Amino acid sequence: MARSAIINVMVQAAMKAGRSLARDFGEVQNLQVSLKGPGDYVSQADRKAEEIIHAELSKARPGYAFLMEERGAVEGDDDQHRWIVDPLDGTTNFLHGIPIFSISIALERQGQIVAGVIYNPAMDELYTAERGGGAFMNDRRLRVAARSKLSDAVVGTGIPHLGRGHHGRALVELKNVMGETAGIRRLGSAALDLAYVAAGRMDGFWENWLAPWDLAAGILMVREAGGFCSDRDGGQAMFDSGTIVAGNEAIHKALLKTIQQKS
Ligand code: 2AM
Ligand code: CA
């Protein structure tokens, strides 16, 4: 399958940053990282990966703006295009030697996400999507799962931790979803969760308190695989609300209803 020029640029940046993350992840796994500074070590790995992506993308498309997890917003001369980048999604997993983390790169054109790449370097799984062109994993076409009943569905989520999110609300949602589904999974990388929904590995996904860089590429991935994404109210304010619900048409609808229950 021939990839478009823009996807090639994004894949090249993601793979190069992925090699850097994989090296650093190896050090974490081999316990080469001093116990006093694993957090610092991971922030360094994160910043290095972001540096590589920023350099690669700026070289290939000078002037495009950026929204990146570490640097924040970087203005560009081109007001039509913006890269939305998470250089390391799944930081906690990375720090603990769990090989579920990813690089997420999306391209927004006039406010619309037109291309997305998600790469898990530890498993060498590369997800790509282009608006109107479908979604792929290592060049194999993706399609969301066909299960239509919530009772058959395996659904992903993110669980807030110490100092983050509203724990009471999260517990209500978990209680209601666990009572209606075949299982809940918690991977720890929202970008990969969405890629897994696109790949039909999970039937749905919901999470609150996320940032645009966790979501941008994954939303396109799910849609290009035939799935649906919305915020927790069923609208399209995923970036502003930091919430997402995803799945095929039936699962998306049912999951939305379940997580909206008040108690
Ligand atoms: P991260 O690994 O880049 O921090 C896990 O439930 C998901 O939540 C991951 O995608 C994780 O991204 C994200 N996450 C964790 N803390 C966050 C925060 N303070 N703001 C936005 N997203 C966050
Ligand atoms: Ca993230």
Automatic annotation (TrEMBL):
Pfam families membership: Inositol_P
The entry's keywords: Hydrolase, Magnesium, Metal-binding
Gene3D superfamilies: 3.40.190.80, Fructose-1,6-Bisphosphatase, subunit A, domain 1
Cofactor(s) for this UniProt protein: Mg(2+)
InterPro entries per record: IMPase (IPR033942), Inositol_monoP_metal-BS (IPR020583), Inositol_monophosphatase-like (IPR000760), Inositol_monophosphatase_CS (IPR020550), Inositol_monophosphatase_SuhB (IPR022337)
GO MF annotations, alphabetized: hydrolase activity
Family label: Belongs to the inositol monophosphatase superfamily.
Name the UniProt record assigns to this protein: Inositol-1-monophosphatase
